[in-house]
Amino acid sequence: EPLHPIPHPPRWPVVGNLLQIPKSRMAQYFLEVSRNYDGIFELDFGGFTTPFVSSAALAEELSDETRFRKVVRPPLSLLRDIVGDGLFTAKSDEPNWGKAHRILMPAFSQRAMKGYFDAMLEVASQLCTRWESHPGEDILVADDMTRLTLDTISLAGFGYRFHSFESRQLHPFLGAMVRVLAANMAKLTQLPMFNRLRRDPADYYADIDTMNALVDEVIRARRENPTGDNDLLNLMLTAEDPDTGETLDDLNIRHQVLTFLVAGHETTSGLLTFTLYFLLRNPHVLAQAYAEVDRLLPGDTVPEYRDLAQLDVIERVLKESLRLWPTAPAFMVAPYEDTIIGGRYRIRRNQGVSVHLPALHRDPAVWSDPEVFDIDRFLPENEAKIHPHGYKPFGNGQRACIGRQFALTEAKLALALILQRFALSDPHDYQLEIKETLTLKPDNFRIRARRRQPHD
Ligand code: HEM
């Protein structure tokens, strides 16, 4: 087959497609553009072009780790100011990636999840207590899910308590984080030359200082009160890499703590917020979820770790929610050598290619009625037939999400407790509006919750 240029929407000299790309809804725009193309298109961000892939067939090629590997390019590379060579933003060939990966993997095994259960339960119970003590009030779902996931990763991973549910305001760490992410995303839609000339404003650095101060506080608290647990923080502070015998250096420990605080909560709070949105939109699915919880955890039965494996409806709700709105919407890879994908598109060595997950997860060749929220797609007999590269909410290969089990365990438990305790309503007839930072979440979604009565 002859080579074809990668198709693209009309573009202008110098600015390329920059003028068309809406700053605050880039991922949603890429999804819209993908609908006009057959699995691949290219956008020009004022001099650097990026192909976007949205078909399972092409995602399969990009997932071949002998040909492609993760690359850290904008927007991810912009975060290296903050999280440096932490696991998420480390380049694939940086020795610190392999070292931290080997040291930290044991903290994410299935067995380790059992060890985090009490912390997860403690924080999820705090959420329920807060909802119970403010009956009839509007709940800003994304904010409370952020309190839940931030407190959970910090307590389970670092033994550190944020006490977010005791406070009306979100922790200053979060304000700083959101502003830093937003400032970096904004740079994507500006001319690269302009970005090079412009200095970040002083409050950008003040925000980074706020974030670093918290990390130092977390580490200081542990050094003052050492524990014997093999939690994430102790592994970072003391464990030796089985290959090199080295421990993580101090700067890298900072980068990892910050990485886990950020990567460990944003995406999961988005997932929980979307999931509640989908449940309220789909009353028959909500009824199924209630029935499951009432059967497995009747009354106020306190869940145990082993109950989570039984929560099959809730698990499918989470998976389907991550299909339609994967909260980390893209990842980027580049080939080791010049190569050709789809038999016709040339990709040069080191050219970054983005796998756009909301579009991939709607690939009509893989998903029937892709816009329909249908948890039966993930019944075992159906799930086994899904294209192995048609669903990648946690990324690919060795750079895939290390916190996947953690996120699913935490989210299942929180949903189970919420459904066990509360009748939920959507008094404002919410229309989905997605807020994009690096991640996606429903913006300004408000619900009400009241304690369930025996007849509910
Ligand atoms: C990597 C998604 C929760 C920690 C990734 C990647 C994706 C992802 C797509 C790959 C990124 C890339 O290739 O550039 C998600 C989603 C989550 C979630 C959708 C929740 C629903 C978590 C949690 C943690 C975590 C709870 C920590 C406790 C990480 C880390 C990496 C990563 C450290 C980098 C792994 C490496 O390259 O070695 N995640 N994640 N994530 N995630 Fe998650």
UniProtKB/TrEMBL annotation:
Positions annotated to bind heme: 401
Secretion signal, residue range per the UniProt entry: none
The family this protein is said to belong to: In the N-terminal section; belongs to the cytochrome P450 family.
Protein name: Bifunctional cytochrome P450/NADPH--P450 reductase
Source organism per UniProt: Marinobacter daqiaonensis
